[in-house]
Design goal:
The protein is of the alpha+beta class. The chain folds into two domains: about 40 residues, no CATH class; about 100 residues, Alpha-Beta Plaits, CATH 3.30.70.100. About 25% of the residues lie in helices and about 30% in strands. It has three helices and six strands. Strand 1 and strand 2 form a beta hairpin. The radius of gyration is 19 Å and the shape is globular.
């Protein structure tokens, strides 16, 4: 019997799930060392940890609603246009975005927010540094932007 905190030999398992209190974590054989053991730390990201990339924009005030809509749709379409360099498949796991509607008045002038979800640091790095679809969209949208803020995080990593 294997309870919390006990070791277990996963042998030839290709994929398993470990259920935790705040969700589940998918593991592959690549996550295990040569002894078929896995170490998980709540404060240290692994190569398989989800990364959230949050971008806040302040669009220029003289833009039409159509120009803002086109720029926003371009961001939304990156989900299918950004292709992994090896698999040629979309690699942005999820993306959402929209116009600011916070009643708090602490938005720093930002008018729109977008969140992209990546499976790992490598995918995020490719997106930021190399992906031609992302680079093209950035060049297209730059003239429309009066300000931007970006923050990325791994859920549960606080220090």
């Amino acid at each position: 019997m294997h309870g919390p905190g006990t070791e277990r030999d996963f042998g030839e398992v290709e994929l398993t799930r470990i259920y935790v209190r705040k969700g589940d974590v998918q593991l592959s054989v690549d996550d295990f060392d040569h002894h078929n053991q896995l170490e998980i730390s709540p404060t240290q990201p692994t190569k398989k940890m989800t990364i959230y990339h949050i971008v806040l924009f302040k669009f220029k005030e003289d833009l039409s609603k159509e120009e803002i809509r086109a720029a926003s749709e371009g961001m939304a379409n990156l989900h299918t246009k950004c292709l992994h360099p090896q698999t040629k498949q979309p690699y942005i796991r999820n993306r959402i975005g929209g116009i600011n509607n916070s009643p708090e008045g602490r938005d720093g002038g930002m008018t729109h927010g977008y969140i992209c979800e990546f499976d790992n640091e490598e995918d995020r790095a490719y997106y930021l540094e190399e992906d031609p679809a992302h680079k093209e969209w950035v060049q297209h949208v730059k003239p429309y932007i009066a300000g931007a803020q970006v923050i990325d995080f791994v859920p549960g990593v606080h220090v």
